[in-house]
Design brief:
With 218 residues, this protein is of the alpha/beta class. Helices cover 31% and strands 20% of the residues. A 6-stranded mixed sheet has the order 1-2-8-7-3-4, sandwiched between helices.
Length: 218
């Protein structure tokens, strides 16, 4: 794999606004979603540092089993994403105001291809801080990843197979609930998470944080 440097960590998040909202068809103006980088769809990993970062984050367990040397690329990507969140999100916000929920990937727990990269990013990024990380969401069955299939799982199907697993006896979340995912495309996964969290905690202040948003390059 040809080396491409990691994307520079910006000073702050950018928000999905009127200039970008139409590129994420399931989001609305009422959604508060933020991202760090832009990922060019239909481009190779070496198109940009962000493309390489995202591709390395998504290296599958089965690929690592066949090619253990590639684990270093995934580790570096996780470490860089974690460092970005730690730098951009203020510690005071993490410790006093926010509950963070990683979005589950396309594979159910127990599947040989299950990937906990977002959990690892959050745990690494907020290591040593009093972060409230909640693993509230999981899939009841595995699906193909959206980027691997022509006919993607619909919002309705994804909603039906995503479980809310937070115990009703646990402490309430903090004032702002942050749903974290690696890539924002249509906004389907975020909207599913938003729906389930809103059912459990009506009236919650929910935000979405993404490492990158998809952009279509000519």
């Amino acid at each position: 794999m040809r080396h491409v440097s990691m994307p520079a960590i910006p000073d702050r998040f950018r928000q999905i606004d009127a200039t970008s909202l139409d590129q994420h068809c399931l989001l609305s103006a009422a959604d508060h979603c933020y991202y760090l980088w832009e990922y060019a769809t239909r481009r190779r990993y070496d198109f940009s540092p962000t493309n390489q970062l995202i591709r390395n984050l998504k290296i599958k367990p089965s690929v690592l089993a066949r090619s253990p040397a590639r684990a270093q690329y995934k580790r570096r990507a996780i470490a860089h994403a974690a460092a970005a969140l730690r730098r951009v999100i203020p510690r005071e916000f993490v410790e006093a105001s926010a509950t963070f929920i990683p979005m589950p990937g396309s594979k159910a727990i127990g599947d040989t291809e299950y990937d906990d990269r977002l959990v690892r990013i959050l745990e690494t990024g907020f290591e040593g801080w009093n972060a409230d990380l909640r693993y509230m969401l999981s899939l009841t069955r595995s699906t193909l990843a959206d980027h691997e299939c022509a006919e993607r799982v619909s919002f309705e199907v994804l909603l039906a197979i995503t479980d809310f697993v937070e115990s009703s006896t646990g402490p309430p979340p903090r004032s702002i609930i942050v749903i974290v995912d690696d890539v924002l495309n249509s906004g389907k996964h975020y909207r599913v998470a938003h729906e389930l969290v809103s059912r459990r905690y009506p009236g919650s202040n929910i935000r979405g944080v993404f490492l990158a948003r998809c952009v279509r390059r000519p």
